[in-house]
Specification:
Elements: E1 3-8, H1 11-14, E2 27-28, E3 31-32, H2 33-36, H3 39-44, H4 46-61, H5 67-74, E4 80-85, H6 91-94, E5 100-102, E6 105-112, E7 119-120, E8 137-141, H7 151-158, E9 163-167, E10 189-192, H8 200-203, E11 208-211, H9 215-229
Parallel strand pairs: 1-4, 1-9, 4-5, 9-10, 10-11
Antiparallel strand pairs: 2-3, 6-7, 6-8
Helix pairs in contact: 5-9
Length: about 230
């Protein structure tokens, strides 16, 4: 069975009403990234950071997968599919994908501040929410300045791809952006973006197919294109 790797970013979830990670003027839902998405921010004002993610988690729980998510899920009927996402939402899973690597963590999980395994969490998180050892819990999010623990797993999967679909991401944020370089040279790359830019890693690909459209429309075309390419 052919292996299709999907690299996804915030754009795939925009049609479900979720705001992109970084908005205009360096703001993220009216907050500076430095105030809500760094270890220093959490150390300085943990209540603000928790409140920010509590609001995002509540927003996510009211959102539903769009056609783009569902079409990616349906690829599993024909191919072995690995979704590698920069998104912290669970819309890929709810859209039917069963093999999802979250590079930047997950909103629906928390973990101890001193290290440890993540656990499911769908309500609000507050000061005083502890693990069994009495350690404070924090959002299971990879903040700026932190290591990306799933990147090596994602790299191994990308290196075995027969085809790659890039959707909802301009591949500007590293280390995720470097994954495309690891795909086999002869693997076709389908790049879905309504306003594609000149990303070097993408433009240097030998078999690049650019679809200038949004996530759902692009996935419909990508599904058809895959049948021709594989």
């Amino acid at each position: 069975m052919k292996h299709v790797v999907v690299l996804s970013g915030a754009g795939i979830s925009a049609e479900s009403g979720l705001k992109t990670f970084r908005d205009a003027n360096g703001l993220w839902e009216e907050h500076r990234v430095e105030d809500v998405a760094t270890p220093e921010a959490f150390a300085r004002d943990p209540e603000l950071v928790m409140r920010f993610y509590n609001l995002r988690r509540a927003q996510l729980l009211s959102a539903t997968p769009n056609d783009g998510h569902r079409l990616i899920g349906e690829l599993e009927r024909t191919y072995r599919v690995t979704v590698i996402t920069q998104n912290v939402d669970d819309l890929h899973e709810r859209g039917g994908s069963t093999n999802v690597i979250h590079l930047h963590g997950e909103l629906t999980k928390v973990r101890p501040v001193s290290g440890g395994s993540p656990r499911a969490w769908n309500g609000d998180l507050a000061i005083g929410d502890l693990d069994k050892r009495g350690v404070q819990l924090r959002p299971h999010i990879v903040w700026f300045g932190e290591q990306v623990p799933m990147i090596e797993h994602a790299a191994r999967e990308t290196a075995t791809a027969d085809a790659v679909i890039v959707v909802g991401s301009s591949l500007q944020v590293y280390p995720a952006a470097g994954l495309i370089e690891l795909a086999p040279a002869d693997a076709p790359v389908i790049y879905i973006d309504p306003a594609p830019d000149g990303n070097y890693e993408l433009r240097s690909r030998k078999h690049l197919h650019i679809l200038e459209m949004g996530g759902s429309a692009g996935m419909r075309e990508a599904t058809r294109l895959l049948r021709e390419l594989l």
